[in-house]
């Protein structure tokens, strides 16, 4: 079986080749890449039996790749690693990933997964199908613009409690931060920071009306460690303090 290894972190590539040789497993790494655009290019030019995607800290990039592989091929995908395992598994199922091994995984577990795929699917390379929509080039990376903005927005909504920055998300996606910010504003007609503020204030309003959480707890839930700063941003955004907003809505209910 010929493997396309996509190793964003460069860690797995150094150990998987020798492991396959030592185990005398019927698998060979036919090609090794470290980013999504190279992986898609390899799939369009060569024949493989399976794609092994090692995400490590690059969950979003790995999921994006799985999504686009499924647009052009039915090839089996094995997804390895990842930090946010619940979210990764949920998305992986959507993209019809054949197996997922959470980090830290043992090399023997990967070999077992490959053997299971071989026995189930046979040696023939997977059939390709035409891409539903050719990806565009963004700063040297193949990426569908609408999809990448959806990924960014979804990540923001699911991680509002964290100290989010566009650079952090851009690094996860292997994108230039300034270019991603420009693309976001072009697509959404709003800057990334304004979108993030809107989502945080929207969630804060919801929590003020639907829970008995204290103001400092709500501030933490929407990513503010400085409570005074949360009060200031909320008042500018909503026209009243968090306490006043809660009272006003309670009185008009």
What attributes characterize this protein structure?
single chain; 253 residues; alpha/beta; Rossmann fold; Arc Repressor Mutant, subunit A; 3 domains; 7 strands
Can you lay out the helices and strands and say which pair or pack?
Layout: E1 2-7, H1 13-23, E2 28-33, H2 36-45, E3 50-54, H3 59-72, E4 77-80, H4 85-94, E5 99-101, H5 107-121, E6 136-138, E7 141-143, H6 145-158, H7 166-173, H8 177-188, H9 192-210, H10 215-221, H11 227-238, H12 242-252
Parallel strand pairs: 1-2, 1-3, 3-4, 4-5
Antiparallel strand pairs: 6-7
Q: What are the secondary-structure elements, in order, as H or E?
A: EHEHEHEHEHEEHHHHHHH
Low-confidence stretches: 128-143
**Apparent shape:** elongated
Number of helices: 12
- What kind of oligomer do you see? single chain
Number of strands: 7
* Biggest β-sheet description: 5 strands, parallel
Number of domains: 3
Helix content percent band? 55-70%
Q: Radius of gyration in whole Å, from Cα?
A: 22 Å
What amount of the residues lies in strands? 5-15%
- Top-tier CATH class of the largest domain: Alpha Beta
The N- and C-terminal alpha carbons lie at a distance of: 65 Å
Could you name the CATH topology of the largest domain?
Rossmann fold
Task: Tell me what the structure shows.
- There is one protein chain.
- The chain is α/β, with parallel strands linked by helices.
- The chain has three domains: 120 residues, Rossmann fold, CATH 3.40.50.2300; 57 residues, Arc Repressor Mutant, subunit A; 62 residues, Orthogonal Bundle (Arc Repressor Mutant, subunit A), CATH 1.10.10.
- The chain is 57% helix and 12% strand.
- A five-stranded parallel β-sheet has the order 2-1-3-4-5, sandwiched between helices.
- Strand 1, helix 1 and strand 2 form a beta-alpha-beta unit.
- Helix 2 runs parallel beside helix 3, helix 7 crosses helix 8 and helix 9 packs across helix 12.
- The chain is elongated.
- About 6% of the residues have low confidence.
